[in-house]
Design brief:
heterodimer, A: 720 residues, 5 domains, four-stranded antiparallel beta sheet, 31 strands, globular, disordered C terminus, B: 260 residues, alpha+beta, Chitinase A, domain 3, elongated, disordered N terminus
């Protein structure tokens, strides 16, 4: 009898315990009352488990060049998607991380439409950065031999990328899957009572609570990405980084807050930390901080601020609180560099933000990333130069500077292979934009107009075509995309450690795909250095600071800068070198910016009144894309002293190097038609490829002016 | 004739009553293992009985479906089978390759594993940027080579990537100076000032102080890489080769009058 009553108690107790546990989870997930922190200790954080993914290496150590103490520029791409990304797989991409790394080393790989993609010159480093969110899952839906593919929600994906399904004609269905099916099926939580919910809570792994998610598939995709990176890493000759994309956005307005997370060694967390864990980037930084405590260093790199509707570089936190010093330090600890240029446009500045910059209207993408229908992205808060200025303003009001980042470029290709060359361009989303008609650079054949109509309906785009002088063109928005960009690091040698350290100290620059190289130093005694001396670089390092660093006030001395730029050996000559200065006028508190030409091609001199070089006369023939011979420079160097300097004003200086104009990819597409066409009239015919250095910040001594920090929590003033 | 006999034997051996179901030990064991990995313990007798009866049900339904001809002309089944054979073809070659296979692959792809020559050298640079002045970079470099051999001084320009290069490969040199330069560079004698050599940026005179000749490494030193590459190339080729092998046995008929 006794036994029976115990049994009875158990039978009653088990559901009660279970239900109260669920209650706990419920409060934790939906309420977050602080009392719940008492129970946090029974949770384990699955995203903090560190795994060494290193692979067995051969005994032959490849010869490697000796390190260079004056540093070399290494060119690479830190933003590459393969079949493991949920969207790339839908776009018909079957390239694996191995394929991607082979491409970066110079081998040809296949585009989903069947043609070969190959680099003219191999890259020095590469990182496959698939979306962490649902990583590997769509491939598993499509592979009908997996358990997860047997679910109803997986059916639209079955055999999506079999050879006979890889056609341009499938683009309509694909974009439909992308915009509606993906969104509807992917988040499919188990019912509230389900034990998986409890498991998800106990291991801080929300994705376990989703029916459409298979953790083993997810982990093995991540492990394959890490394995591939480690296998292809060849110290001294070719560097890879384990990485992934943290694809988050704001809940309101769909402001894009995407970032790439790059690991510094062969070790990484057991799984990527994704938007399912949290959509707040501050939580990502917390996770990065914790990983760093465990010996795994990472950086996260924001991209496509241009499509963020002003959310990427806001003047407040994600939750709408005031930015404070703690926030600024945390952000800068984890995000030393920003991707200023990529396929989906360039984020230097916008004509509305920099009306006095004649080069501001450059590869502007003016819609929010992934918006359906395409929706305007507000420029303010979306561009790098304004962010630098806002950073100074925040510092001015004693809130710290969260926008003191360096610059890189990258491609964001979804085919495994970055398209950096205007004359050899395949855009980035596989079957959707792999041919000129679909990306809108040549008119549509009659039979393709109806197909495009269907395709654009899936994108919720009101107008599927535009009627122009040479015919009807696709209105796909891909015309605002381009052949960009590259990340360049100044490092002693081509190794993970050396290049990663360059990112951390922001000694980097960005290019639009060209191999321009640029040195930049600032100091107070730079004019004592002979520009024609062999020791120019080593002396500059000794006497000054370089890109990414701070130049501290030295009484009332005026900063001098050395800039040295070299053209791409296979590209167009240089037209001019500029220094872009931004500062806070201490008297008015206003942010200001100014663009100075500092070196002109062909021995021309800068007009001191306008700060502009004269026209060097270089022109492009847009019927065959040839350009003027013997105009422009192979290298430009100069010493520049700020003519408008005030030693009390916080300021930043960065370099922009401009090539002579060359044909844009859309012009190449048009002239490559048979018979050749004229370029589409509402697009830029030519482009000025360029490079941007990370800034040097001028830091004045702490001023006597007392500033009360903004933002609710006014601190007690220090009364001495 | 032989084909027909083989066919008849085949039928004879495989003829069974289609109402008899044989379940192999292996099939049960694999299901029990799968059950165990899901649940985390061995199934008890009842559970084993249920596993088997589920399997039997499935087999019966499958045979009934076959008798009704439901497998015919079903796109999903066709695709599933086509995909299955693709995976099989890819997987069968995932067993470790034999030594002979590795050696053959290595020999056929030797150039892929060639260890490049490396050079240690220094140079003087004459920038084409200064060509508008009285002397162009070619003339300046021609004068310089004479002056350096007679141990006289001359003016040169700093080169963007530096003056001395330590153990760099031709590939590196190519990316620093351009194609023109690297193709001339290959033929330069060592321990002797040579030039001028043209690059994308101007002219150079060059002194190579050391060269390590490139070589084909011993396969034992790069076994991992060869194995990975071989597996990759097999995966790439497996389905294609299988298709090529059997394609000739098929004839394809399409209605030439079809209107779409």
């Amino acid at each position: 009898m006794k036994l029976k009553s115990i049994l009875k108690k158990i039978i009653i107790a088990v559901p009660i315990i279970y239900i109260s546990f669920l209650g706990l989870v419920y409060i934790d997930v939906y309420d977050s009352r602080p009392i719940i922190n008492l129970f946090k200790n029974i949770q384990s954080d699955s995203a903090l488990e560190v795994v060494d993914f290193s692979v067995e290496k051969d005994s032959l150590i490849n010869t490697k060049p000796a390190p260079n103490k004056d540093r070399n520029p290494y060119y690479g791409d830190l933003h590459v998607h393969t079949k493991y990304s949920f969207d790339a797989y839908v776009f018909g991409v079957t390239a694996s991380p191995d394929d991607a790394y082979r491409y970066a080393k110079g081998e040809g790989i296949k585009h989903p439409l069947g043609y070969e993609m190959k680099l003219e010159e191999p890259l020095d480093f590469y990182s496959v950065t698939d979306h962490g969110f649902y990583m590997g899952m769509i491939q598993a839906y499509a592979d009908t031999s997996t358990d997860i593919s047997q679910n109803e929600f997986a059916e639209p994906f079955h055999n999506l990328n079999r050879e006979d399904n890889l056609t341009v004609e499938s683009a309509g269905e694909r974009s439909n899957i992308f915009s509606s099916v993906l969104g509807a099926t992917i988040i499919l939580p188990y019912p509230d009572w389900h034990p998986k919910l409890l498991k998800a809570w106990l291991t801080k792994n929300t994705q376990l609570a989703l029916e459409s998610f298979d953790y083993d598939i997810h982990k093995s995709a991540w492990a394959d990405i890490a394995r591939s990176a480690n296998e292809h890493n060849d110290p001294g000759n070719f560097t890879t980084f384990i990485g992934y994309e943290f694809t988050t956005s704001t809940d309101v307005e769909g402001g894009n807050l995407h970032r790439n997370v790059i690991f510094n060694s062969s070790k990484a967390s057991i799984r990527p930390w994704t938007r399912i864990d949290s959509i707040n980037p501050e939580d990502l930084w917390t996770w990065q901080d914790k990983l760093r405590d465990k010996g795994v260093d990472t950086i996260s790199i924001p991209h496509n601020s241009n499509g963020s509707n002003g959310q990427m570089f806001e003047m407040e936190t994600f939750k709408g609180n005031a930015i404070d010093i703690e926030y600024a330090e945390k952000r800068m600890r984890n995000e030393p560099v920003v991707e200023i240029t990529q396929v989906k446009g360039t984020s230097d500045t916008h004509p509305l933000l920099s009306p006095d910059d004649e080069w501001a209207d450059f590869e502007i993408m003016d819609v929010r990333v992934g918006s359906r229908p395409p929706t305007y992205s507000k420029p303010s808060g979306s561009y790098v130069r304004e962010a630098y200025l806002n950073g100074l303003t925040l510092e001015f009001t004693k809130q710290g500077n969260p926008y003191k980042f360096g610059l890189i470029g990258s491609s964001d290709t979804h085919t495994g292979a970055g398209a950096y060359d205007e004359s050899n361009y395949w855009s980035k989303v596989g079957l959707l934009d792999g041919d000129p008609e679909n990306r809108g650079s040549v008119p549509l054949a009659d039979e393709n107009i109806a197909r495009l109509d269907e395709y654009m309906r899936a994108f919720n785009q009101p107008l599927s075509t535009v009627d122009l002088e040479q015919g009807e063109y696709a209105n796909t928005g891909f015309t605002q995309w381009g052949a960009s960009g590259l990340a360049v690091a100044w490092a002693e040698e081509n190794t993970r450690d050396s290049i990663f350290k360059a990112f951390k100290r922001k000694e980097t620059f960005a290019t639009t795909g060209t191999r321009i190289a640029v040195r930049f130093f600032g100091g107070y005694d730079m004019s004592s250095i002979d520009l024609n001396s062999e020791s120019l670089v080593s002396e500059s390092y000794e006497k000054g600071v370089t890109m990414g660093a701070d130049l501290l006030q030295d009484e009332s001395k005026i900063p001098e800068f050395i800039v040295w730029a070299q053209k791409d050996k296979n590209g167009a000559p240089l037209q001019r070198v500029q220094i872009i200065k931004g500062w806070i006028d201490t008297n008015s508190g206003r942010p200001k910016e100014k663009v100075y030409d500092v070196a002109c091609s062909d021995g021309n001199k800068v007009d001191p009144l306008t700060n502009r070089c004269p026209d060097n006369g270089a022109r492009v023939n847009i019927t065959d894309c040839s350009y003027s011979k013997n105009v422009g420079s192979s290298e430009l160097k100069t010493i520049w002293k700020d003519p408008d300097f005030s030693h009390t004003d916080k300021a930043f200086y960065y370099v922009r190097v401009l090539e002579n104009p060359t044909c844009r990819w859309s012009t190449w597409d048009a002239i490559n038609e048979n018979p050749p066409l004229r370029p589409r009239e509402d697009l830029h015919e030519t482009i000025q490829e360029r490079a941007w250095s990370s800034p040097i910040w001028y830091i004045p001594n702490p001023s006597d002016v007392e500033v009360i920090p903004l933002g609710g929590t006014i601190r007690m003033r220090n009364i001495d | 004739m032989i084909g027909l006999i083989l066919y008849l034997i085949d039928i004879g051996l495989n003829s069974y009553d289609d109402k008899e179901i044989y379940i192999s030990d292996q099939e049960i064991i694999s299901l029990v293992t799968a059950w165990k990995s899901q649940v985390g313990r061995n199934p008890n007798d009842d559970e084993i009985a249920r596993i088997i009866s589920d399997l039997v049900d499935e087999e019966i339904l499958y045979r009934e479906a076959l008798m009704l001809g439901l497998d015919k002309e079903d796109r999903i089944i066709k695709r599933r089978l086509a995909q299955k054979i693709s995976f099989l073809k890819q997987e069968t070659i995932l067993k470790p390759p034999s030594d002979q296979e590795l050696i053959t692959y290595f020999n056929n792809n030797k150039d892929k594993y060639f260890v490049d020559s490396t050079y240690t050298f220094t140079h003087y640079f004459f920038s084409s940027e200064n060509d508008s002045k009285e002397n162009n970079s070619k003339e300046r470099s021609e004068n310089a080579i004479e002056l350096i051999l007679s141990e006289n001084n001359f003016d040169s320009d700093p080169f963007f990537l530096g003056k001395s290069f330590d153990r760099v490969s031709l590939k590196n040199i190519d990316s620093y100076f351009g194609d023109d330069f690297s193709s001339s560079f290959k033929n330069i004698p060592i321990n002797k000032w040579t030039g001028p050599i043209k690059s994308s940026f101007g002219h150079h005179i060059v002194y190579i102080s050391n060269k390590n000749d490139g070589y084909y490494p011993d396969i034992s030193k790069i076994l991992n890489k060869v194995e990975i590459d071989l597996a990759q190339s097999k995966r790439d080729k497996a389905v294609e080769e299988f298709l090529n092998k059997v394609k000739s046995e098929y004839k394809v008929f399409i209605n030439p009058n079809l209107q779409i």
